Amino acid sequence: MKIKNYDYYLIILTTLILSAIGAVSLYGITYYNYLAVDPVWTKTLQYSQYIDEMDSYLYPFLVLLLISLGMCIPKRLFEQDILAKSSALILGITLIISFFSGIEKGLGFILSVMTIVQAIVLILTVKKSKSVRFEKEGYLARIGSSLLHLGLVIIILDFVSLRDSPIHLLIFWSGVVLITVGNVFSFYPEKIALLLPNV
Amino acid sequence: MGYTEYLAAREYLGMVGQPVITYIFIISLFQGLFSILYLIKRDRRYYDYLIKCLYISTGLYFIGFFILVWFHIQIYNTVLIEYPVQLRQMIPVANSRIAAPLWIESEKLYFWAMCASAFALMVKKSKDVMSFMGVILSIFSLVVYFFSNPFKDPLPILNSEITRWHAVLLLSDMSIFQMAGTLYGRVTFYYNSTYMWTHPPMLFIAYASLIITFAACVYMLFKKDRVYDEIAYRYAKIGYILLTTGMLIGYPWAVEAWKDSAWWWDPKISGSIMMWVLYSAYLHSRIYVSKGKMWQTTAYLGIICFASLIFTYLLTYIVPGIHSVVQP
Question: Is A32–B241 a contact, with Cβ atoms under 8 angstroms apart?
Answer without folding.
Answer: no
